Amino acid sequence: MNKNDSSASFSFRRNFFRSLLRHLFVKPFLFTIAAISVLVLMLFVMDQQLELNQLPAIINIRSRQNILETSELTQQIRAKLMDNRNGSSGSLKLSKPVTGPENADRSQVGQPKILQQYFKNKTGGTFVEAGAFDGEEMSNTLYLETMFNWTGLLVEANPSQHSRLVAKNRRVAALQGCISPSGQPSELQDAKKLMRPGQSLNFMPLPSSNDPSVIFCYPLLNILASADLLEVDVLFLDVDGAEPEILETLPFEDTNIKALVVECWHNGSLVPTNCTATTERIKATLKPWGYELREIINNQDLLFMKKDAN
């Protein structure tokens, strides 16, 4: 074999092996890369399509919330808020100063400590407490504020107790008024009925009056919107008798309340209630919105949490 034949044979073998390698390795590798790329592209398109499908609902929710937050009623409530969430009013002025965890909890039966077991001692959370009294005695939120840096909104109907609350410089927004059990703005008269903590707010609305004892009641949804708390970690609801009606008239689709602590036993209430019947009624109201009854605290408070809250 001459030199030219030998060179041609070597070139043939080299090209043959190169071609074989391309068929055995390079092309399958490129095919795999191409297949993966197509798969990723398909998943991206599907995800984008899913987001597009969800977009009308998201826009609808945001539109409703924007309308709610800018509504005349919400603006009226916002104008009444005493907002100290930034702490500009100065340090706390409690009748019994907080010296540590051992005396920070002023609640009746340790509701905030039990709640924090589910929130895993969350810091920087938000709360709404309806029936806040003077912001210290029997407070469900003082412990969360002082020990875990939570803030939020306190609602108290009684004018004198509300004044005491504001004077304590709690790092919260405070509203003097009550929550309407009808879901519509209303009024109730005779503030003397509200002198004791835990008295019922479930009164029939009466005609308008210039009497300073008239208490204005607002829908809970507008109250939440006025304080920018449509999304909130916990709602404490202690209005002795009106809890079921308030929850039944709340449009939960416009809110994101992760937990609720609802009183169902009312000692000395003007509206006697059956806690068992009340519990079942509230459970039926909250279940469609994804809430589960996690605990009954001391046979008087119901702790509900959203399934995806933790």
CATH superfamily of the largest domain: Vaccinia Virus protein VP39
| Envelope shape | globular
Output the strand order for the largest sheet: 1-4-3-2-8-9-11-10
Largest sheet descriptor: 8 strands, mixed
Keywords: Membrane, Transmembrane, Transmembrane helix
Organism: Notodromas monacha
Region (Disordered): 84-107
Protein name: Methyltransferase FkbM domain-containing protein
Question: In short, what is this structure?
Answer:
This protein has helices spanning 3-69, 72-80, 101-104, 111-119, 142-148, 159-167, 220-226, 243-248, 275-286, and strands at residues 82-83, 126-130, 151-156, 173-176, 178-179, 186-188, 215-218, 231-237, 256-263, 291-297, 301-306.
Describe the structure.
It comes from Notodromas monacha. This protein is 42% helix and 17% strand. It is α/β, with parallel strands linked by helices. It has an eight-stranded mixed β-sheet with strand order 1-4-3-2-8-9-11-10, sandwiched between helices. Strands 5-7-6 form a three-stranded mixed β-sheet. Strand 2, helix 5 and strand 3 form a beta-alpha-beta unit. Helix 2 packs across helix 7. The N and C termini lie far apart (82 Å). About 7% of the residues have low confidence.
